Amino acid sequence: MQKVLGIISLIIGLGLVYFFNNSHTLGEKPIPPIGKLLNPFTGAWQNSEKSTDYSDFKLTSELIKEEVTIVFDDRMVPHIYAKNLQDAMFAQGYVEAYHRLFQMDLSTRSPDGKLAEILGPNLLEYDKKQRRLGLGFAADNALKGWDNFPEELKNVDAYTAGVNHFIDNLAPKDYPIEYKLLDFKPSSWTNRHSALLLKAMTQTLAGYENDIEMSNALRVLGKEDFNLIYPDRNPKDIPIAEGPYNYAKERTDSFKGAITSLNLPSIQRPRSPDGIGSNNWAVSGSKSATGLPMLANDPHLGLSLPSVWYEIAITTPEFSAQGVTLLGMPGIMIGFNENIAWGETNVGHDVSDYYTVKWTDKSKTSYMLDGQQKKADLKIEKILVKGEKVVFDTVRYTVWGPVVDDETNLALRWIAHDAAPTPEFMAFVNGMQCDNYDDYLKSTAAFYAPAQNFIYADNKNEIGIRINGSLPIKKYMQGVTITDGSSSKNGWSGFIPRDANPQERNPERGYVSSANQYSANEDYPYYYNGNFEPYRGRIVNKYLADKKVVDLTYMKAMQNSTYSMLAEEALAVMLPRLNGKVAMHAYAKELAKWDFHYDASSVAAVLFDRWFSTFHEMLWDEVYTQNKKVALPEPDYWVTVNMMESMNTSKFYDVASTSKVESLDDLINQSFRIVMGLDRLTLSESKDAQILHLTRLPAFSEMELALGGTKYSLNAMQQKFGPSWRMIVLLGKTPEAYGTYPGGQSGNPASPFYKNRISTWAKGEYDKLVLARKSSEISTSLFTIHINHEK
Amino acid sequence: MKNSILFVSICVLTVVCSLVAPWWVIAPISFTVAYLGKMKSSAGFGVPFLSVLITWLIAIYLNDNGVVAELMGKLLLLPNWSTPFLSACLGGLVAGCFGLSGALFSYRKKTWVNG
Fold it and tell me: What are phi and psi of A503, to 5 degrees?
C-alpha cells in the first residue's frame, strides 16, 4: 500500500516537473515554462537590476588588439575608448548585446521568417510571407557584395565578434527575461544578421506598395478620374532639392508595359510602412543664433520597448562621435562628432514593383519571358514551428524576383534584393569619422537601400542634403501599376547616377530640410513616383523661412510642434460653408477658435479629424463603395483639400447612394451633422498612445500615454508611431547637442534604465549629450568595462 | 529533531545544487533526503514543502527589490506581492510530492540517522 501511494506521489511529482518545465498553450493562450521562469536561481528573479548592482568588470579576448575601456555614464550611455576602429567595433557589438540581445535576436528573426520557431504557429503565416518576399535571399545577396570589400568587412567581423563574446559568456541565469519567458536560447550572431537588419529596415522604409490597387483604380475609374483622384504630385509641395539639377531633362516616354486588365486582391505584406516618416533640417551660420550651423533630426518609426535606437559614443585616436545606432549594425546612424553632425529621413521613391508571371503549366516551374520558356529557381523554405511539425514552402524566383503569393502569381522586383556595389554600413562607419562635407559625401555614397535623405552640417559653415540610395530609372508612370512580366524590356533601365540624385549644398536661403516629401520638382531629369508626405515638408519650410535667426529654443519648438497645415487649409474652406443652426453648434464654435495645434488636451483636434475623415469618405464614396468589390487605393487627404479649394462643382460631390444631387456645401454640412452626434473627447482620450514591448505583452509595455501630435504635424505622434529619436546639434568649436527617445538604454524590463527616458521625451524635453573626448571628462559614471587582449 | 535536520539538509542541498543544476533538482533532493533520512510519511510532504518554500522565498527576496515581482504580477495578472509566494509554492509543491514519495518508499527501512 505504502509503495502504491509512493508511486502515485512520484507520478504526480514527475507530472508537475514536466508541466512546470515546458511551455504550453491553454486554448489560444501561451503558458510559459513557469518552473524555469519563476525559480529564484535561474528564473526571472535573477534579472532584477538595482541601481546598486553596477560595478566595474574586466574581460579578455584574443580578438582585441589593444586595451578598450567602456564607461557607462549616468544615462547608461556607453562611451567606448579604443586605440583603433576595429577594437571599437568589437566593443560596440559587445555593449549592444549586453543591453539589447533579445531585441537584436527578434528583429533579425523577423525578416528571416523565423518567428514561429520561438513564438509558435500564430506566426507561421508571417514567416511564410517574409520568406516569399525573399528577405533572407536579399541578406545573402548583400553578404556576397560585402565580400568584395575585405578591409571594410573587418569592421563588421569585429562587431560580430563582440556580440558573440557576450553571448558565449552568458550563463542561462543571465539570459534576458524574454528568453526565459519564451523558453529558447540565444544563438550565435553572424554578419548575415547585420545584413538581415538592413533588409528589415528596407522593408519598413522602402516596402511601400500599391501597384495592384492602382491598376484596379485605373481600370475601374478610367484615366480621367484616376488622374483626378490619384494625381502624380501636389502642386503646393516644396521639394527637398529645388534645383538646378545635374543632367539635362531627358525625353521621358510613357511606359507601355502597364497591366490593368486583372482584378486582383490586395496582398497584405508584413510591416506596413504606414505612419513612417521623419524630419530633418540644418540651418547655416547666416541664419543661426550661434553664427555656425545647427542640425535637427527626428525619425518617426513604430515605437517600441526597448526603443529602436541605442545611444552610444565612440572614441579612437582619430575621432570622437556620439549619437544613436540601430541595434545590430556597426557605426553611428544619426549623430555628431567634434566637427560635423548628420542624420537621415526616408526618401519614399517606389522601388518595389509587381510583375505578372505567365507559367507554362500547373507545376509552376517554368514561365514565359520574351517568347521563350524560362525555368524558375525553386527555393525550398524549411520553417520550424514551436510545438508543431516542420512546415515546408516553395518560393519561386523569376528574373524579376520571388513570386510573392500563389493567388496573384505576381513576382516582386524590389531594391532590397539587389546586392549593393558597396557595403551600406560604410555610410555609418566611415561617415561618423568625417570632418568635411566632401568626405561625408564620399562615405555616404556607399549607401544603396533603403534610400535616405542624408543631411549634414559642420563647424566650417557647410550644410547639405543628398539622397543616398539606388533610385531606378523609370519611364513615365512605370511601376505605378502592375507591370507585364513577359517582356524583359519592361524592367528598370538602370539606376540614376549618384551625382544626379537630388541634392542641395549651401543654398542661398540658408537652410536645407526634408520630411519625406517629393525629392525634386518637375525640372528634375528623371521620372519618379512613390509615397510622399504632403504637409510636414511645407511646415518645416514655412517655419524656417519665417524666422530670421534660428536658435536652440526655436529648433526644439519646431520638433515638438503639433501644428497641422491640413487642418488650417481644410477648415478655411469647411467652416464658412456651415449654414443655419449647424454653424451655431458648440462644436463649430470650438473649431472656429482652434489654433490648429494637436495638443493632448485638444477637443477641436478630435472634432476636426472626425469631421474631415467623414467628409473625405462621403466625397470619395465612389471609391469607398467600390472598395468592397475591388481593392482600390485610398485617396490622399491633400487631394481632398486641394479639390474643395479649387472646384466648386464636381460630379464627385454627389453621393451616389442618395436620390438627391449633393453639392460641396451639402457634403460639408451633412458630415458635420454626423460629428455633432458624437461624444466630446480630448485627443489623448481618443488616441490612447502606447509604446508596446516587442512581444506586445502589456506587462513590459508603457500604456495610456497622454500625447499630442498627428501624422501631419512635425511632432508626428500617432497611436503607435512617432518621433523615435529627437536630436539637435549646435556646431561649434565643440558641439552642443541634445537628444531624447521614448525608452531607455537597457532592454531589461526589470532595469531602472528600461523606460526611464520616456517622461523626458513625452514632455518635449531633451537630455544634454556631452561628447567626452577622454573618459575623465564624464562627470558621473555608473560602471566601467575593461577589455584586454588575451595572449 | 530528525525532521529539523532533514529540513536543513534540503535547504542546504537546494542552495548548493541549484547553482549548477536546473531548478527541478529539488525533486531528487527531496526524494533522496526523505528516503535516506527515513522520513515519516506524515512529514514526507510538509517538511520538503516548507524547506524549499522558505529557501526559495529567501533567495527571491535576496535577488529582487520588487521590480520583478511587479513584472510577474502584471504578466500573470496577480497582485504583485503574491508572485514570490506563488513561485516558492511551486517549488514547495514539487519538493513535497517527491519528499512524500521518498518517505513512503523508505517505510520500514533502517536509516543512517538513528542507526
Answer: -160, 160
